[in-house]
Amino acid sequence: MARWDKGGGGEIPDWFWDAVETEAEEHTVEVEECDVFYRSWGMQAKQPMLLIHGMNAHSAWWDFIAPQLTDDYRIAAMDLTGMGDSDYRYAYDATTYAAEIVGVCDDAGFGNEVVIVAHSFGGVMAAKAANLFPDRFGALVLVDSGIRPPDEAVPADAPVMGGGRAKVYPSRAVAEERFRLFPPQPCANDYILTYIARHSLMRVDGGWAWKFDEELPLTLKGGERQPEDYSGLTLPVGIIYGELSESCKKTTVDYTAGLIPGEVPVIEVADAQHHVFLDQPLAFVAALRKLAAELRV
Known about the structure:
Order of helices and strands: HEEEEHEHEHHEEHHEHEHH
Strand order of the largest sheet: 1-2-4-3-5-6-9-10
Strand content: 15-25%
C-alpha cells in the first residue's frame, strides 16, 4: 500500500509500516466446493498460529499484528467464506466454518499443535471447531469473545448476526469515509481504520461495496453461542478482552471461563474496547505472546 501520510507529521508509527509492508504469501484451499483465501507470514519451521477475524471482517485486519509475531510463530490469517476474498456460499453454517478452519490448517501444513487466535464471531466458530475436531488444535485464544451469563441483557448494538451490506458507493473515497466499526466504538488509531477501510472494498456494478455477503446473516445456521460450546472444550484455552468492551464484559469473561474445564488464563487489555487489537495493538501483541506461551507449556 502507498504510505498515504508518509512524512506527514509522524502520526503513523514506524512499527505499523514495518508490519503492513511485510510481504505475505497468498493461498487458497477448496473446502466444500468453495475457495477459502488465507495468507501466511514467517518460517515454516516455527510454531503455527492461525488468526481468525470477526463478523464482516477479513484477514487484512491482522496485517499490522501478524508480522510482529513471526520471531516465534509461523502465522496464517484466513477469510471465512462470505467475507474478504473467500468465496460466497448459498448458505452458511457453523460446521462448514469449522471445516474451513481445519482446511486452512491442513493446507498450511499446521500440525495439531497449532494455536488458534480468534476475535468475536471468529471465536464462536473456533470454539465450535474445537468441539467438532477435539484433537486437531493445540490451544485456543478467544479475543473479546465468549458467552454472556443467562441473566445478562444483550446490548442493543452487540455484534450479532444483523445488518446487511451498505449501499453501493460511487467511488472508493466516498466508501472509505463511510467505514465504521461494528459494534460502534471510537478508535484513536485513525491510521488503522484507514488501512482496514482501504482493504475492505471491492468493485461492483455501479461502484464500490464492502467485502462481505449481505446474505450471510440471513442464511447462517448454528451460529448461536451455547454453553456446551465452552464446557465441551478439551484443549488449553485463554481469553484476551478489552477493559472497556461492552460486547465482552468481565461478567461474560468470568462466565465463559467458568464453563471451560481446567484453568483459563485471562488478560484484560487496558483502555481497549471490543476491537482490542485496533485500540491497543502493541499491548495486544504483548498479551498474545504471554498467553500463547503459557498455553503451550
